[in-house]
């Protein structure tokens, strides 16, 4: 990943309009430069280097068995035959520059939910994700310590746009969740599904009503994406720019 790729990404996110209903979110096309997007697709790891999500998260064995991941912070990244590409991408996407840019870009909105944002210690994480047919994810608001999520969609074509992330409203409009549980789809109404298009991204601010999930995936190709998150540790005071 070169400087021009990082600047392209920053430009697209920096100018993305933010939608506020039912929670702050955005959708961007052409999120990466064309050559860099092609390079990502050419360097997808083979299945033998991916792990079931239940092996890398505190989930019951066999949960979400259609989802396979590899963290860019995982030591197994170095075992990839194309490790050099992913290590370079890791340096750019997990460096403080992108994290601090995003925290600054969305600072006004984030401070509505986190008035002490400037005192948080923050860190970012990124996963390579491959979802297979029949994958689905019930409505949930995400980890209570999460600030922001961006899902970079990486399909080879635009034939399966319905497989993007969906936004939900609880049928009980007053219902809120600080984060953790995944709920029954039947208790929610579908509001919007971000198109799962080539070289696009869906991002949102984590709130107590940021209910999102994935309708059952019906695909002929695998559902590849990069999952980027920013978390905080409130009990360890440190300026976010450090």
Could you please describe the fold and organization of this structure?
This protein is α+β, with helices and mostly antiparallel strands and 242 residues long. It has a single domain, classed as Jelly Rolls (Sandwich), CATH 2.60.120.620. 22% of the residues lie in helices and 27% in strands. It is built from six helices and eleven strands. It has helices at residues 3-14, 34-42, 53-56, 83-93, 96-105, 107-113; strands at residues 25-29, 51-52, 67-71, 121-131, 137-140, 146-153, 166-170, 188-193, 200-205, 212-214, 223-233. A seven-stranded antiparallel sheet has the order 1-9-6-11-4-3-2. It has a four-stranded antiparallel sheet with strand order 5-10-7-8, with no helix packed on it. Helix 1 packs parallel to helix 5 (96-105).
């Amino acid at each position: 990943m070169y400087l021009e790729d990082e600047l392209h990404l920053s430009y697209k996110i920096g100018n993305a309009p933010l939608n506020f209903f039912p929670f702050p979110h955005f959708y961007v096309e052409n999120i990466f430069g064309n050559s860099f997007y092609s390079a990502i697709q050419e360097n997808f790891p083979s299945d033998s280097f991916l792990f079931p999500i239940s092996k890398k998260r505190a989930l019951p064995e066999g949960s979400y068995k259609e989802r396979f991941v590899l963290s860019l912070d995982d030591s197994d990244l170095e075992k990839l035959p194309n490790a050099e590409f992913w290590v370079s991408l890791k340096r750019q996407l997990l460096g403080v520059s992108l994290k601090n840019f995003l925290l600054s870009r969305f600072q006004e909105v984030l401070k509505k939910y986190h008035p002490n944002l400037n005192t948080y210690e923050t860190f970012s994480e990124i996963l390579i994700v491959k979802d297979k047919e029949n994958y689905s994810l019930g409505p949930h608001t995400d980890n209570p310590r999460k600030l922001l999520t961006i899902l970079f969609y990486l399909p080879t074509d635009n034939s399966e746009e319905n497989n993007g992330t969906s936004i939900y409203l609880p049928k009980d409009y007053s219902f809120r969740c600080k984060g953790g549980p995944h709920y029954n789809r039947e208790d929610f109404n579908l509001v919007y599904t971000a198109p799962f298009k080539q070289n696009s991204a869906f991002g949102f601010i984590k709130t107590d009503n940021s209910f999102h999930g994935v309708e059952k995936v019906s695909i002929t190709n695998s559902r590849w994406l990069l999952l980027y998150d920013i978390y905080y540790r409130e009990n360890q005071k440190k300026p976010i720019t450090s």
